[in-house]
Amino acid sequence: MTIALGNDHAAVEMKFFVKKYLEEKGYEVLNLGTDTLDSVDYPDFGAAVGRAVTGGEAELGIAICGSGVGISIAANKVKGVRAVCCSEPYSARMSREHNNANVLCFGARVIGQEMAKMIIDEFLAAKFQGGRHEKRVNKILALEE
Question: Which long-range contacts (CB under 8 A, 24 or more apart) does 77-85 make?
């Protein structure tokens, strides 16, 4: 599975940690983030991750900025993206199971590396449950029209 990974300057160190963690788990990582501490604009990277997911370059995405909020808002502007900003594992799991989320976002200034691993593991292990949730996700998709 390929995972699109994007970040701004506030999350360079976290991005490198996440990239290594994902690769060690056998995932292919599409690095769409900045690799330097030079100031950049998080919307560019949230959009890049979203476009990679909706364009089929990656099955899922992870986007990281200082808080996780701005980059998730940007990713959600890409049609077909259901990005979620999570600071703990439960929401990451539920976002996949109930909302069919396809982009995970979090803040490098909010959580540490061990929490990031737990959130990522829950997000990647969870599967969309469909059923009653399918109707609700379809309503979300209809809002884009």
Answer: 77/43, 77/46, 77/47, 77/50, 78/47, 78/50, 78/51, 78/53, 78/54, 79/54, 79/144, 80/50, 80/53, 80/54, 80/141, 80/144, 81/50, 81/53, 81/54, 82/137, 82/140, 83/46, 83/50
